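Study this fold:
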Amino acid sequence: MNDIDVISDYPNEDQKDVMESNPFLPCTHYIIGVYLLVIGILGTFGNGIIIATFFRFRILLSPTTTLLINLAIADLGICLFGFPFSSSSSFANKWLYGDGGCQWYAFMGFLFGSAHIATLVALGLDRYFVLRNLNTRRRLIFRRYYLMIIVIWIYALFWSVMPLLGWGRYNLEPSLTTCTIDWRHNDTSYKSFLSTYFIFGYVIPCIIIATSYFIATKRIKSDKITITDISIPVRDRWDNERHMTLTIVFIIIGFLLAWTPYAVLCMWTVFADRSTVPSFLTLLPPLFAKASTVFNPFIYFFTNPHIRIGMKATLQCCKNVPDETFELSNSPECIRVTQEE
C-alpha cells in the first residue's frame, strides 16, 4: 500500500498504517495541539467579546458594523467548529473523528472561511460607497446590508458544498490531524475546483478590495484640506469613517498576511506534483492561516476608539455606560449616524 492510499483511506485503516505514513514526529503534533488550543481560546474569547459589545451597546451599531459583526461570527464559527477537533486530534497524533467527522470539519472550515473572505469584499465596497457619498450616508440603510449578508452566506455555502457533491473533495491534510480540500490528489476535479475558487475566492476579491481602498484613500487625501470648510456634523461623520476605514484596512492586511501563503501552496499543487512540496510547507501555511481568527479583535481594539470603549466596558462588566462616554472619543458622530439610519 502506498502513502496516498493510506492517507486517503485513513479513517478506515489500522492505526499502525497511519502512524507509519505520518511525516511528523509526535512532539511536533503536541506543539501544534498547544498552538491550536491557544489560538482557539483567544479567537473564541476575542470574537465573542466583539459580538457581545455590539449587541450590548446598540449605539455602536451602523450598517458598516453589521458587516463587522458578520466577520466576527465567521471567525467565531471557525474557532468553535474547528479548533476543538483539530487540537484534540493533534494531541492524539491522529484524526479522532472518522471520515464523517472529517467531511463535517472541512465543510465548516470552508463555509466560515469563504464567508470571511466575502465579508471582507463587502467591507471594501462599503468603504468605497461611504467615502464616495459621505453627504448621503443615510442611503446605506440596514436592509441593504442585511441582504448583502444573506448573499455572503449563499456564496460561502455554494463553495463549501461543492466538494461534498464531487467537485473536488475533502480529506485529511498531510499532518493527518485536520481536514481540508484534498490537494494531495491533484486530479482534474481538484485542479478545476481549486483554480476556479482561487480566481473567484481570492484573486477577484483581492482586486475588488484593492480598488475600493485605492479610491477611498484618494478620497480621503483629496478632501483632507477642504474638510474644515464643511459643516460640523459632516466633519464629525467624516472623522468616524476615517477611523472605520483604518480598522478595515488593518483587517484586510491581516487577512492577506495570513492566507496568501496557503493560497500559494494550493496553487503550487495545481501546477506541480504534490511530492515537490517540502513537508514543512504542508504544515506552516495552514497553521498561520488559522491564526487569522485572532487578529481582528485586537485590530478593533487598537484602531477604533468607539469599539475600544465598548470592549473595555464589556470586559469590565460595566452595567451602565452613558452615551456621553462614547462622545469623549475623537469620533462622536457615531451616535448621529446611528440615529439617522
Summary: Residues 232-271 form the longest helix (40 residues). Residues 135 and 234 are 7 Å apart (CA to CA). The first strand starts at residue 170 and ends at 172. The chain is about 75% helix and 0% strand.
